[in-house]
Design goal:
single chain, about 500 residues, alpha/beta, Aspartate Aminotransferase, domain 2, 7-stranded mixed beta sheet, 12 strands, globular
Length: about 500
C-alpha cells in the first residue's frame, strides 16, 4: 500500500514553467537585440560557417535539455553562435543559385505575420493583403488578367499549375482525374532546359516522370518550335493525350526565354494547356529593353513567379497564376471534414452581418493548391512592392541585367576570358581560357572552387553547349556593379595562378 500511495501522488512544482513566462513583455527588447545581431551580420565581415577557425558546432552539440535556459539565453545563443555562422547566400557577391537573402522589409513583414497572423485564413488584414498582393504582383508582371495563389516555392507552384493542366485536359474527355485518377497516358512537352521540378510534378501528379517529353533547344537555350510541332503530331498518332506545354521565361541555366508567342499559338491550335515557368525570369518584363521577349504571355493558361528570387522576399514564397481558379479548386479541393464544415456558416438572416474575423475563412486558398496550413505570404510581397514601387523594382531588374551585360563585354574584350552565351537576363556564362592548358573545363572547375573559398565572389558553374562555364546570376537586392568588378579581378588573378601551376606540373 505504501508503494501504491507513493506512485499515485501527483508531481507538482513550486514555480511551473518559469522560463516560458519570462517571454511576456520582453519581445521588444529581444527583437531589438536580434536586430543588432543581424545588422552586424549584414556587414559581411565574418568568415564562412565552415572556416577552419570556426568552432560553433562543438558549442551547439549538446544533449537534449531537460530544463530550459530561458528566452534571454536562447536569444544570446542566436546572436553569438547562430547568426554569425549562417549562410553565404545573402552576401552581395553570392551569385551561384537563383535564391537570395531577404530584404529588410521582407524580414519585418514575415516576422509580423508569424506572431499576429500565423495562418493566411479568416478575414484579417493579412488575409486581405494575400489577395491584394497577388493582384499587384500580376499587374506588375503584365498578367493582370490572371488569378493567383501563393505556395512555398517554384516546385510547388509548377505542381499546382500542372495540376490545373491535368484537370483541364481530362475534363475535356468527360473525366475527373482528381476524383478518379488518370485513365490514359498523357504527354507534357517541356524544353530540354526546363527546371527538373517539372519531371517531379509528373511523378507527384500520377502521370509519371516519363510523361514529360523534352523538346530540343537551340544554341541559345530556347525551345525549338518545329521540334515541338513534330512531337505533338507523333504523340497524338500514338494515342497520347496532350496535357500541357511548358515554356520558360528565363531558364535557371542561362536565363534564356523561349519563343513564347509561337509556342502559345501552337498550344492554342491544338487546345493544349500552355504553362510558362517564370519563377526566376518573369520580373524581367520590367526591363523595357527586353520586354518584347515576353510577347505571348497573354496566351498562357498558367504562369508562375517566385518573389523569393528576384524580388527579394524571404524564401518560401512563390505564386501560381491561372485564368480561372475554379479549375484549381476542382483539381485540389479537399473532402469534407467534420471540424471544418459549418464552423464558419452563418444563419441566413445574418448573411450580410459579419462582425468577427472568424466568421469566414475568406478566399479558399486551401482548395487552390496542396497546402492547408500556410503562412501569410502576401504581406511580404505587399511590403516589397509598397516599399519601392514598380519603378524601384524596375531599377533593380535593369541594374542586374546591366551587370550581366557588363561582365559579358569584359569577357569578350579580355584575351584570357571567353563569353559562352550572350546574356538575356541577369545570367552571364563565361570562362577563363589559357593557350597552354588543354583541359579548360578542369581549369575552370579548380578556379571556381578557389573563388568560392575566397568567400567574396561566389558564382556557380553550368554547361553551355558542352562547355563548362562560370555562371554568376545577379538577383540579390544588395548586389551592385562592384560585384562585377570584384569577380573579374578574382577570376583573372586565380586564373593566372593556376596557369603557373599547370606550367610547373608539365
Amino acid at each position: 500500500m505504501q508503494n501504491s500511495k507513493q506512485h499515485s501522488t501527483p508531481i507538482t512544482t513550486q514555480n511551473p514553467r518559469p522560463k516560458e513566462r519570462a517571454e511576456t513583455g520582453n519581445l521588444e527588447k529581444l527583437l531589438s537585440d536580434v536586430g543588432r545581431g543581424l545588422d552586424q551580420y549584414l556587414k559581411f565581415d565574418h568568415p564562412d560557417a565552415l572556416h577552419p577557425d570556426n568552432h560553433w558546432q562543438a558549442t551547439l552539440d549538446n544533449t537534449l535539455p531537460l530544463q530550459g535556459v530561458g528566452i534571454e539565453q536562447v536569444t544570446q545563443d542566436l546572436i553569438s553562435k547562430i547568426i554569425p555562422n549562417g549562410s553565404a547566400v545573402p552576401r552581395p557577391g553570392f551569385s551561384a543559385y537563383i535564391t537570395t537573402g531577404s530584404t529588410s522589409i521582407a524580414t519585418l513583414a514575415a516576422a509580423a505575420s508569424s506572431i499576429s497572423s500565423p495562418q493566411r485564413y479568416m478575414l484579417t488584414a493579412f488575409n486581405y493583403l494575400e489577395e491584394l498582393s497577388l493582384q499587384w504582383l500580376a499587374s506588375m508582371c503584365g498578367i493582370g488578367h490572371l488569378q493567383g495563389v501563393y505556395s512555398s516555392g517554384g516546385s510547388v507552384a509548377n505542381l499546382v499549375a500542372l495540376g490545373g493542366a491535368r484537370q483541364s485536359a481530362f475534363e475535356k474527355t468527360g473525366y475527373d482525374p482528381a476524383a478518379d485518377g488518370i485513365n490514359q497516358p498523357v504527354r507534357v512537352y517541356a524544353s530540354a532546359e526546363c527546371h527538373h521540378t517539372i519531371q517531379r510534378a509528373g511523378g507527384v501528379l500520377g502521370i509519371g516522370r516519363r510523361a514529360i517529353r523534352a523538346i530540343a533547344c537551340d544554341t541559345e537555350g530556347r525551345m525549338m518550335v518545329e521540334e515541338l510541332r513534330k512531337a505533338i503530331i507523333e504523340d497524338q498518332s500514338a494515342g497520347f493525350l496532350p496535357m500541357a506545354i511548358v515554356a520558360n521565361a528565363g531558364t535557371t541555366n542561362t536565363g534564356a526565354i523561349d519563343p513564347l508567342k509561337e509556342i502559345g499559338e501552337i498550344a492554342k491550335e491544338h487546345s493544349i494547356w500552355f504553362h510558362v515557368d517564370g519563377a526566376y525570369g518573369l520580373p524581367g518584363i520590367l526591363d523595357e529593353r527586353i520586354n518584347h521577349l515576353y510577347e505571348g504571355l497573354e496566351l498562357a493558361d498558367s504562369i508562375i513567379v517566385d518573389p523569393h528570387k528576384w524580388l527579394g522576399a524571404s524564401v518560401g514564397i512563390a505564386a501560381t497564376f491561372v485564368r480561372d481558379r475554379q479549375v484549381l479548386q476542382r483539381a485540389f479541393t479537399q473532402e469534407p471534414a467534420n471540424y471544418l464544415e459549418g464552423s464558419v456558416a452563418r444563419e441566413e438572416h445574418e448573411e450580410n452581418t459579419i462582425e468577427h474575423s472568424m466568421e469566414d475563412f475568406g478566399i479558399p486558398y486551401f482548395d487552390y493548391g496542396v497546402e492547408l496550413s500556410a503562412p501569410c505570404r502576401g504581406v511580404v510581397v505587399w511590403g516589397l512592392i509598397r516599399e519601392i514601387g514598380v519603378e524601384g523594382m524596375r531599377e533593380r531588374i535593369k541594374r542586374h541585367n546591366d551587370m550581366a551585360r557588363d561582365l559579358a563585354e569584359a569577357a569578350k574584350s579580355h584575351p584570357n576570358l571567353e563569353l559562352l552565351l550572350e546574356p538575356t537576363l541577369s545570367v552571364c556564362c563565361f570562362r577563363y581560357i589559357a593557350p597552354d592548358v588543354s583541359d579548360l573545363d578542369q581549369l575552370n572547375r579548380r578556379l571556381h572552387r578557389r573563388l568560392v573559398r575566397g568567400n567574396q565572389y561566389m558564382p556557380s558553374t553550368t554547361q553551355v553547349n558542352g562547355v563548362l562555364a562560370l555562371r554568376p546570376c545577379y538577383i540579390g537586392a544588395r548586389a551592385d556593379h562592384s560585384q562585377v568588378d570584384g569577380l573579374l579581378e578574382a577570376v583573372l588573378k586565380i586564373g593566372k595562378e593556376l596557369e603557373t601551376e599547370y606550367r610547373r606540373s608539365s
